[in-house]
Write a structure and sequence with these properties.
The protein is mostly helical. Helices cover 80% and strands 0% of the residues. It is built from four helices and no strands. It is elongated.
Length: 148
């Protein structure tokens, strides 16, 4: 079977495009993985360092449930702000690249990938905030160490 030069070029281009897409997904996955580890570490440390604040709130009459609801709202606000700011930063780099590549504004790829990343990061933010808070609330408020 004889192929014309355009068909051969198209096949080679398609194979190269697939390889580039996988490399981009792997690089993005590595960056996202590192960012998630940093996110979880930061949120766990931040929530753990607020034990005295939670104890004081409970001493003045707040229930554990109220503290957990407050921290849930805070975690969701952090997730929303992180999503907005992260999307803006990504757009600032991806839109010019896509415009130079093929003249389109929106980056290529399925929307479900973006939604999956947002969902995963939101879930991680909530869990990494609420688990340390729940552990901190297990200590009786009078037994919490005083702030220096």
């Amino acid at each position: 079977m004889i192929r014309d030069s355009a068909g051969g070029t198209r096949a080679a281009s398609s194979g190269g495009g697939s390889a580039d897409a996988w490399i981009n997904f792997l690089l993005a996955g590595t960056i996202i993985g590192y960012a998630m580890i940093s996110l979880v570490n930061t949120l766990v440390v931040a929530a753990s360092e607020r034990r005295e604040e939670f104890a004081l709130q409970r001493l003045v009459g707040a229930t554990s449930g109220q503290v957990m609801r407050m921290m849930s709202v805070e975690a969701l606000l952090v997730a929303v702000m992180g999503t907005v700011l992260g999307s803006l930063v990504a757009a600032a780099t991806l839109v010019p690249f896509r415009l130079a590549l093929d003249g389109r504004w929106l980056p290529g790829g399925p929307v479900w990938i973006y939604l999956a990343i947002v969902g995963l990061v939101t879930a991680l933010t909530v869990v990494a905030t609420l688990v340390p808070v729940r552990l901190a609330l297990r200590v009786p408020p009078a037994g919490a160490p005083a702030a220096p």
